[in-house]
Amino acid sequence: MFTVGLVVNPVAGLGGAVGLKGSDGADVQREARARGAAPRSGERAAVAVRTLLSRRPDARIVTVPGAMGEHSVSAPHDLVRHQPRAATTSSDTRAAVAALAGVDLLLFAGGDGTARDVLDAVSGLATAPPVLGIPAGVKVYSGCFALSPATAGFVAAAFDGTTTPAEVVDLDEDLYRRGAVSPRLYGSLAVPAVRAALSGRKTGSSATSEGTVEGIAREAVAKMRPGTRYVLGPGATTMAVGRELGLSTTLLGVDVVERGGAGFGGVGGIVAGADVSEAELFALVSGGPAALVLSVIGGQGFVLGRGNQQVSPRVVDAVRDGGGELIVLATQQKLAALGGRPLLADTGDEETDTKLSGHVRVITGYRESTIYRICPASKEFSS
To answer: Any idea of the CA torsion for 311, 315, 320, 323, to the nearest 10 degrees?
Structure first.
C-alpha cells in the first residue's frame, strides 16, 4: 500500500496578510493573532490531501494528531503517537517528521522555515523518506515546494519513487523585516522528480542593471492617472516606482500611492498607505479607482501569493470592481529565464486566480512592454 505522511505547521503563513513578512518566533505569532491573522496552512494541506485521494483513493494517509495534520484529513487515516504541544514549535515539526520516517512520501505544509526543520529532521534519520512541500508560508523561496497545494496532491498521486534533489533556502526574518534580503542555502531534500510541478528556487536580480529597473519605473509612472490609488507590491522594482514619484516606499511591504495632479506639475505623488495589512489595504482600495502594481519572483514566475498575501482575493475583487487593472513589472531577462512558463497566481482562492488568468501586459522597460500569459498555479500542472 502506498503510504503518505502529512505534517502541517499550523502557524505557517500567519504573518503574511497582516504585514509581518513572516511567521517565525512566538512573539511574531502572538502579534499576528493580535492583528487578526487567521491560520491558512491547514486549509492548504487539506486541498493537497483531497487532490491526492481523488486520484489515488487507495493511498494510506498517516499524520499527526490535531492541527499538525489530523484536522486537514477528512478521509480515514492513521495517527502516529507523537502528541504536539498546543503552541507548536520547530521541535514539534522535527519530532513529527521523525515519527513518520517509514512513509513512502512525506508531505509537509509550511514555508522555508518549515522546510529547514524538515531538512534537519531527515538528516538525522537512517533512512529518510522523499518529501514534497505544500506552499503555505509567507516566503517560499526553496525549490522543494510544489507550485500549489493542488499540484502537491497531483504529484503525490503520481509518485513512482523517482526523486531529484531540491534546494532548501531561508532568510533571517529579523533582517528581512528591516529590508535586507539575504537568502542562505541550507541543503537539499529528495523530492519527486517532476521539475515542471515544482516552484523552483527563487533567483535574485543582482545581474539586472539599475537603468533597466529605473526605466521600468519611469514607464509605470507615465501610465499612472491622478486620482487612482496604486498598490505597490514588495520588491526592488516596485520600490523604484516609488522613487520615480519622489516617495519613500518599503522594499518588502505593500504600499499604496497616488500620482500627483496639477499641484505637482504632473509629477510626484503621495503615500496613501505605507506597509499596510490586508485589512488596511482593502479599506484603501474599496469604493474608488485603484490598480495593482506587482513584480515577478525571479525563477518562479509568481505574481500573487508569495510574499504579498496582503493582496487577498477580496482586495483583487475590490480593485476589479472599481475598473482597476493588474500592472506587472519584470525585466526581459526575468521573463526569458522562465523558458516560456506562464506567470502564476496563488491567492488561496481558485476562483480569484481563474479571474486573473489569460494575458497581461508586462512592463519591461521605458516605452517597452510585452503580453505574457498568467494562469492559476493550481492549473499549471494538473496531471
So the answer is: -100
* 198 vs 204: CA distance, rounded Å: 18
The amino acid that residue 372 corresponds to is Y
DSSP three-state, residue 87: coil
Q: Which residues of 32-50 are buried (b: 16+ CB within 10 A; e: fewer)?
A: beebebebbbbbbbbbbbb
Inter-residue contact 329 to 294 (CB < 8 Å) = yes
Cβ within 8 Å of residue 30, ≥6 positions away: none
What pLDDT sits at residue 209? Answer: 59
Whole-number Å distance between alpha carbons of 148 and 136? 9
Written as one string, the DSSP assignment of 312-375 is -HHHHHHHHHTT--EEEE--HHHHHTTTTPPEEE--S-HHHHHHH-EEEEEEEETTEEEEEEEE
Q: Got the DSSP string for 262-324? A: GGGTT--EEEEESS--HHHHHHHHTTS-EEEEEEPPTTT-EEESSS-TTS-HHHHHHHHHTT-
Cβ-contact 69, 7 below 8 angstroms: yes
Q: Please tell me which residue, 27 or 363, carries the higher pLDDT value.
A: 363
Question: CB count, 10 Å around CB of 180?
Answer: 12
Average pLDDT, the chain: 89
- Residue pointed to by grid coordinates 505544500: 134
Alpha carbon distance 254, 280 (integer Å): 10
Q: Please name the residues in contact with 80: beta carbons below 8 A apart, sequence gap of 6 or more.
A: 62, 63, 64, 96, 99, 100
Whole-number pLDDT of residue 109: 97
pLDDT number for residue 210: 62
Instruction: Burial-class residue 162 by CB neighbours within 10 Å (0-12, 13-18, 19+).
Output: exposed
- Grid cell, residue 177, equals 523585516
pLDDT tens-digit readout, 135-182 = 998 878 899 999 999 999 999 999 999 999 999 998 765 555 555 556
Strand partners of residue 63: 6, 79
